[in-house]
Amino acid sequence: MGKHRRASKAIRIATIAGVAGAAVAAPILTATSASAASVAAWDRVAQCESSGNWSNHDTGGNGHYGGLQFSPSSWAAAGGLKYASRADYATKDQQIAVAEVLLKMQGPGAWQCAYAGPLTSGGPAPAINPDGNSASTQTVKETPAKQAPAQAPAPKKAPKHAAPAAPAAPVQQGTGSYTVKSGDTLSDIAADLGVAGGWQKLFELNDEVVKDANLIFPGQDLKLG
Known about the structure:
By secondary structure, the protein is mostly helical. The chain is 32% helix and 2% strand. It has helices at 6-17, 22-31, 39-50, 72-77, 92-106, 186-193, 198-205; strands at residues 178-179, 221-222. The longest helix is centred in the middle third of the chain and has 15 residues, at 92-106. It is rod-shaped. The chain starts with 5 loop residues before the first helix and ends with a strand.
């Protein structure tokens, strides 16, 4: 089940109780309410479990998420679904709040890195605010960010060492002061020679020779002004 024992334990608890999620945590909480750990202790456990990455997206491929490496079943069994669908989508304070419930349910043995805290069965309650903002809260967005509006692309730059495409018809010649070389683009020529108006002006000046701003050929003579 991955690097923790907590996933299988949480599943057994859910099976015995006949219910899932936060409903499992309520009766067990009352029975062993003395278990707790400080924020500093949870930070040390997270450093050992996930290098302190509270938004860890299962980068190790072991099916565990968040700073304290919850399996989906443990997250659900300890009531995490009221905050987010997975631990890595919840804030740091919310992950610690769910970890406190799991600590009461299963004890320190639910984490391989319990020794780093160290996690105990009677530690101090952590100073967290899972339902609002606090100094230790880290917000992780579950929905992807909106993409910026697409902008019109500049003329494509041909690879420097790519062989030029053979023209379908004989290359037309203009009367100008620059001869196109292999690997050139209108953007490069306009920038290198300081053409006022950039590649657009260069394209306009040579529209009888250059039919496509993305396609120029070695040997073409271009007007520069």
